[in-house]
């Protein structure tokens, strides 16, 4: 598998093997069952578990999987929506601290923020609230249908 980048080739031609090695952000895995070697990209100090799927003993093999009970060695991803730093007690949605959203924003405002990237204006919130309430409306037919499955009254019936 030839995965040498143009930067690495340039460094190799210039006789700088150390620079060529340093520019490679990959992990080489040798499967001792087959003797095959695989090169897996490293990004942000981690490899993608799905990249292990290319490691197979034969064409009918599903591919190598990773097992990480209790997520003891599972890396977090980079997200534009959520930032979590459990050690420092930080949780942010779209850059807003969760404490600020809990104190100053409603559930629907926060949902809008997650979907659209910004908190809604007053008009956007009014439109959003109308659409949510009308698309989640439970009809009388739905209530009656649900009542047929229970002997106790449903709280929203």
Describe the structure.
With 157 residues, the protein is of the alpha+beta class. 34% of the residues lie in helices and 13% in strands. The protein contains 6 helices and 5 strands; from the N terminus they run H-H-E-E-E-E-E-H-H-H-H. The chain has helices spanning 6-13, 17-22, 98-104, 107-116, 122-135, 140-147; strands at residues 26-30, 37-41, 82-85, 90-93, 96-97. The strands form 2 sheets. Strands 3-4-5 form a 3-stranded antiparallel β-sheet. A hairpin with a 4-residue loop joins strand 3 and strand 4 (90-93). The relative contact order is 0.06. The mean pLDDT is 84.
Topology (SSEs and partners):
Layout: H1 6-13, H2 17-22, E1 26-30, E2 37-41, E3 82-85, E4 90-93, E5 96-97, H3 98-104, H4 107-116, H5 122-135, H6 140-147
Antiparallel strand pairs: 1-2, 3-4, 4-5
Which labels suit this protein?
single chain, 157 residues, alpha+beta, 3-stranded antiparallel sheet, two-stranded antiparallel ribbon, 6 helices, 13% strand
Kindly summarize this structure in a few lines.
With 157 residues, the protein is an alpha+beta fold. It contains 6 helices and 5 strands, in the order ααβββββαααα.
**SSE class:** alpha+beta
How many distinct beta strands?
Answer: 5
Detail the poorly predicted runs: none
The N- to C-terminal Cα distance equals 64 Å
Computed CA radius of gyration, to the nearest angstrom:
26 Å
Mean pLDDT: 84
Helix share, percent: 25-40%
Strand proportion: 5-15%
Shape: extended
What sequence of helices (H) and strands (E) makes up the elements? Answer: HHEEEEEHHHH
| Major sheet details | 3 strands, antiparallel
What is the helix tally?
Answer: 6
Walk across the major sheet and give the strand order. 3-4-5
């Amino acid at each position: 598998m030839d995965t040498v980048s143009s930067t690495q080739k340039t460094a190799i031609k210039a006789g700088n093997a150390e620079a060529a090695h340093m520019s490679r952000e990959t992990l080489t895995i040798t499967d001792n069952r087959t003797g095959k070697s695989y090169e897996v990209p490293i990004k942000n100090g981690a490899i993608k578990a799905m990249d292990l799927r290319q490691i197979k003993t034969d064409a009918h093999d599903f591919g190598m999987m990773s097992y990480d009970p209790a997520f003891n060695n599972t890396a977090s991803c980079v997200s534009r929506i959520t930032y979590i730093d459990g050690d420092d007690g930080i949780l942010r949605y779209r850059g807003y601290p969760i404490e600020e959203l809990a104190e100053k924003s409603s559930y629907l405002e926060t949902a809008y923020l997650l979907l659209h990237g910004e908190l809604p204006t007053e008009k956007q919130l009014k439109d959003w609230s109308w659409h949510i309430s009308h698309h989640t409306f439970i009809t009388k037919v739905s209530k009656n249908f649900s009542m047929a499955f229970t002997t106790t009254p449903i709280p929203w019936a």
